[in-house]
What does this fold into?
Amino acid sequence: MKNSKMRIYLADVYANHLASGEGMPLNIANIAMYVNKWFPDTEMTLFSDAFRLKSALEAQPPHILMLSNYCWNKNLSFYLAQYAKKTNKETICVFGGPNIPIDKTRREKLITDNPFIDFYILYDGEIPSLRLIEEIDSYNFDIDKMKSSSDRIESIMYACKDRFVHVERRNRLESLDEIPSPYASDLLNDYFNLQWTPKIQSVRGCPYPCKYCNMAAPNYKKLIKMSLDRFNFEVDSIVDKMNAFKYKIRNLHLVDDNFGIVPEDLQKAEKLRKTYEKEGIPEHLSVYTAKNINDRLIKIARELKEFTLISHTSQSFNPPTLKVIKRPFSGVDKFRETTKRLIGEGFKVMSEMITGLPLETLDSFIDGLNILDDLGFSDYTIYQLIIRDGSPMDNNEFLDKYKMECRYRLYPDTYINIDNEKIVEFERVVYRTSTLSENDYYILRMVGFLLRIQLAMCFKLFFECLKKVYGISGPDISVHIAKKIIDRSLNKEDNLAISLLYDFDRDTNEEIFDSEKDSYSMVTAKNLVHRYRALLMTKAYAPLCDLYYKTVKDMPKYKSADNKGLLEKCFECMKMTDIRTLYFEENVPSLEQIESYKPSTWKIENLRRMIETG
It folds into this structure.
């Protein structure tokens, strides 16, 4: 076999396109391009579709199958590796990805419990993949002999007879320019044909030690950069490909962990803006900006203003929590100052918070939500804390110290059925801590959902009116409703929205289990937020408005206010706004229109809109 043409399949598989976000698999493309520099005759094929890979394994088994391991595809990748071995026992299965434990004892168990894993590459994949393939080729595919004799493989772990071999990283790329551009080749043409969204990684690594993130590993602290010339080339190549394949939606993913962290990022932003002005690409740029907003990031935001959201987030505003999780944060006052500066310049700004972090309480979390709401963020999302394999929190000593208790939940949109084999992924969610009760967890789960509903209502003026006139915020309403839903003190018989919220709460109680095995009872793994948001907005919009109306009327701040009549007008306006026209800004009434509201006028106008929109 030595020096002959190898067939290598590289797979970054997903259960469906929702799980992938239809983003191109830059991770495996980079490995393929790097290896191909030294093995130009090697046949490299990329796979993201599990069924397509399974068919290829049957029709033409590869010499080497390389699979990614993330929290959203671990079990699916494991299944396909086992199937590859069943189809052809000579196929060498190589895994890589961050979804592995930190400590070596658990790593050894992962390898010994899954004998279909011939090798597991640690950290960055390019150099160790090349070294491994060189050794496999030099030993004529006799991997048993290679494992016993070779000492050239690095950043890798594997089982060798009765011992476990774990070799730390020796070398790392000096520059991302060392990887030939996948966009200058035909490697990703199948994905361009499907109109998946291209990705660029211009800086790899993260210097921050956030304990909930598996990028906090010491091996990722050094930043590896792409040159400006190469970045410009990538952008131009993507534009050429998009035009050639006649893209209808021309978005771009910039997958740096902290865009804006290096000085060159400003020039990259300038390149993106010029490309947008000339080509209309990207229509939207998805990117996570650096964790601390500074003058350079403000300049970058100005360049990207027309086609992206700026992320400005701290995950918590509770000082003891931030200290424990080692999340960089310059303080609430600085956060307010920079947020006001961004919004004042007209930027769309998003933020995030995470429930279940150590030392966070229900009250401190709600205080943080009100900080975000007061500042006027365009969007903010609540996530539950998930303990990821490979993150510093994936440590029993740490979890025990803060009495962090976990249960298993099906990872949304990961269910797949292959030949009657049900495959799904799991995540380990924190539902109780020393400072957060299980009941608090469910309240915050409901609050997060209700805030997504408020965003979907696209009636920002209404919530601004409530805050201005009555001093009642969106989070205030969500918390008020959530507590009543959790303690079942609302009557669902005459309001479909309340009934659906009870169903959502029931399903969130039933979605977490003590073990992965128990979780299979909910094997469809649907996204509850997406499902119930759609049901509420399409089938219970008017009852939802009634619920909000009655909730506000029940709140002390409303009861003590003078101008109670404005509330009724606001809700009549909301109910008259047909769901099919909510997303058109011109259909949102002004405060003056609300104050001069006449029911007959609004009904006629709403009917006209309904007719025009079909």
Remarks:
- Residues 336 and 602 are 38 Å apart (CA to CA).
- The radius of gyration is 26 Å.
- Residues 578-589, 593-614 have pLDDT under 50 and may be disordered.
- The first helix runs from residue 17 to 20.
